Amino acid sequence: MNKLMRIDEVVDAIPRGATIAIGGSSLSRKPMALVRALAARGQGDFGLIVDVGGPDVDLLLGTGKVRSVVYAFVGFEIMGLAPHFRRARESGTVEFQEWTEFTVMAGLDATVKRVPFLPTHVGFGTDVLTVNRAFKIFNDPFEGEPLVAIPALKPDFALVHVNLADPQGNGVILGDGHVDVLCAKAAKRTVLSAERIVSAEELQRYGRDVQIHRIHVDGVVEAPWGAHFTGCAPYYRADLRHVQEYLNAARAPESWQQYCERYVTDRHQDYIQALGGPETLVGRLEV
Fold first, then answer.
1. Could you report the per-residue pLDDT of 88-100, keeping only the tens digit for each?
2. Do 147 and 270 share a domain, yes or no?
């Protein structure tokens, strides 16, 4: 079954109020072509689920598309804090639930396992149980030991960027898979963006690197440089020059508006051209 889609078709398929799990981690392999399209023309009021968020969460917050965020961390690593995330967190204009990396994984895994929660010892002796009222303490019915119940996270959609995909929806991730497989399995619908679409025969040569299987995928978009301005190892690094441009623009409403007019679009090819074209990016970022 051919599952190839265009970016605009993906955006049109995601309704207002949908809960979206986003793959990748911080400045690594975020599905930014899809995220930019949602920021440009998505219907908004989205709930976001991320393990470690970065420009994906910040951009959607900065364009007013978010009602809530479940997260373990949101930031720009060595480049500093996420400015729109920080403003929304301080102002209380968006609902935030602070989880941990493990508990986000457990919440997604609970949905995969079709159970309402997963038990764990995580959280005892920390402030996690104070800041997050979603977690419940209960006693093990067999041994009487106190445990923490991590509720299932149930995304409507998952957006994941992969190195390679075939038209049937199998996806190759080279290197750290982060929580992408859990996102794909837990979501009601999953869309992959890929650096390159290849035949099913070629994809199967990658063996264990075929981390996402077609039974969990509803759509596939070909988007070279689709993770920019995060990195997509081993192809290209995170674009720290553009990170700085983004952070500078986010300091004031006028410069942010100018940034959005130049870069926030559902036409991925226009975004790449605004950066100087593929040749410029290859010369600067290709590993």
1. 999 999 999 999 9
2. no
